[in-house]
């Protein structure tokens, strides 16, 4: 069973805040059980839920709705996951704002967008790593953390395991009123190595492995910052590496973000050895995410069909048709970015954008260094509706939760 260790917080007369923040005190840090050889006991109803979520995930990947560019759907789902994972940590941004920042490339001045783009970079890195089908190693995990943190205002500690006690909740100066205190730093390397052994296993259902890996990572909290976002990439790593989701990993974070109290309660239960409650939360989240991802794919396919009709059914080899295929992945474009994306001339990109503008597929949204920016409002509205629908998904049977932001994990 997990255990608590009592430690002493030394007094600091220079600490900011009330007198209580400057005195010494005793606190209890949770040391979770290793999971390297864990074989969770899963009752029949929960096993059925997880099996159903796996079947639906596999079906989405094997038989996706008709869409011109499957990579575009994968890219859109990944960005939906990144936005939601960042939102859980209090970093809030819309898909439109993120897409505009991407259109600006590395020149965006939007600090929030840069932070979320770091989440996108970490997700893309973990996808590449999973496709290699090799076990995760420490350097892989540290690289994920560097990719996430390098564009944040304070990137100290990026790519390094923590060497100090951290905590969740309370105040930023001491763990006096913390809601959760993970293991002292000397336990972190061993627990992380044990987690890698668990991630290398192939004798467990992928859904159980993904859920346990994420929850155990959160219990360890191995970094000074960014634990929640890195931890949620492990869900994608497992589902993709195990072959369950080789094309699309449903954005589970969108469901978890909507019911933060349920999410955090499940993680806390897992950290204390109560695995069933967390796996129920995770199973419902995975099933909801994959069901609504299929609906998004169908919506994109229908939207592309309507665009072709309004654009006069452009030739299959035309730049306009190529842009219709690419817009779900890149809903905000400039002539320069469109030319690079399509591998065609600036003139061809301009002509295609003009044709789609006349058809009402895109509209001029602004300028980036004298280069007009075009966006697809219908696509952005479709994705916003998808996020809203997922935000209202139930994590537990018969219970509807309100959207709210929970404490940072």
Structure description:
There is one protein chain. β4 (363-368) and β5 form a beta hairpin. The strands form 2 sheets. A 3-stranded antiparallel β-sheet has the order 3-5-4. The protein has a two-stranded antiparallel sheet with strand order 1-2. The protein is 54% helix and 7% strand. It is mainly α and 409 residues long. The chain has 2 domains: 3-295, Fic-like fold, CATH 1.10.3290.10; 312-384, Winged helix-like DNA-binding domain superfamily/Winged helix DNA-binding domain (Arc Repressor Mutant, subunit A, Orthogonal Bundle). The chain has helices at 44-62, 70-88, 95-103, 111-131, 138-149, 188-199, 206-220, 227-241, 252-258, 260-271, 275-310, 319-326, 335-342, 346-358, 377-391, and strands spanning 3-9, 25-31, 332-334, 363-368, 371-375. It is built from 15 helices and 5 strands.
Topology summary:
Layout: E1 3-9, E2 25-31, H1 44-62, H2 70-88, H3 95-103, H4 111-131, H5 138-149, H6 188-199, H7 206-220, H8 227-241, H9 252-258, H10 260-271, H11 275-310, H12 319-326, E3 332-334, H13 335-342, H14 346-358, E4 363-368, E5 371-375, H15 377-391
Antiparallel strand pairs: 1-2, 3-5, 4-5
Helix pairs in contact: 1-11, 2-4, 2-9, 3-4, 4-5, 4-8, 6-7, 7-8, 7-10, 7-11, 9-11, 10-11, 11-15, 12-14, 13-14
């Amino acid at each position: 069973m997990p255990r608590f260790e009592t430690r002493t917080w030394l007094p600091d007369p220079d600490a900011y805040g009330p007198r209580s923040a400057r005195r010494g005190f005793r606190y209890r840090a949770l040391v979770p059980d290793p999971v390297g050889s864990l074989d969770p006991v899963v009752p029949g109803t929960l096993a059925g839920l997880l099996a159903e979520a796996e079947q639906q995930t596999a079906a989405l990947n094997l038989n996706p709705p008709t869409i011109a560019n499957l990579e575009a759907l994968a890219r859109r789902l990944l960005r939906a996951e990144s936005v939601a994972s960042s939102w859980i940590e209090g970093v809030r941004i819309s898909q439109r704002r993120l897409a505009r920042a991407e259109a600006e490339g590395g020149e965006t001045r939007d600090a929030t967008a840069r932070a979320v783009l770091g989440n996108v970079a970490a997700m893309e890195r973990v996808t590449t790593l999973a496709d290699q089908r090799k076990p995760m190693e420490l350097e892989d995990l540290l690289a994920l953390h560097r990719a996430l943190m390098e564009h944040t205002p304070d990137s100290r500690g990026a790519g390094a395991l923590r060497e100090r006690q951290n905590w969740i909740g309370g105040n930023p100066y001491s763990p006096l009123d913390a809601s959760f205190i993970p293991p002292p730093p000397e336990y972190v390397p061993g627990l992380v190595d044990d987690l890698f052994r668990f991630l290398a296993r192939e004798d467990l259902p992928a859904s159980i492995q993904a859920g346990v890996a994420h929850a155990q990572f959160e219990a360890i909290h191995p970094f000074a910052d960014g634990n929640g976002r890195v931890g949620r990439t492990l869900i994608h790593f497992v589902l993709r590496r195990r072959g369950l989701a080789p094309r699309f990993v449903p954005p589970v974070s969108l469901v978890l973000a909507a019911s933060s109290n349920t999410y955090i309660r499940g993680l806390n239960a897992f950290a204390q050895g109560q695995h069933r409650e967390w796996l129920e939360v995770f199973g419902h989240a995975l099933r909801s995410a994959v069901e609504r991802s299929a609906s998004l794919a169908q919506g994109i396919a229908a939207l592309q069909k309507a665009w072709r009709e309004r654009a006069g059914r452009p030739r299959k080899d035309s730049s306009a048709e190529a842009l219709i295929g690419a817009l779900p992945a890149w809903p905000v474009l400039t002539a320069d970015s469109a030319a690079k994306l399509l591998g065609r001339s600036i003139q061809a990109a301009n002509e295609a954008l003009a044709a789609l503008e006349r058809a009402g597929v895109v509209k001029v949204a602004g300028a980036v260094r004298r280069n007009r920016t075009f966006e697809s409002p219908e696509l952005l509205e479709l994705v916003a509706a998808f996020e809203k629908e997922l935000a209202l998904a139930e994590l537990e049977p018969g219970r509807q939760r309100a959207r709210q932001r929970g404490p940072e994990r």
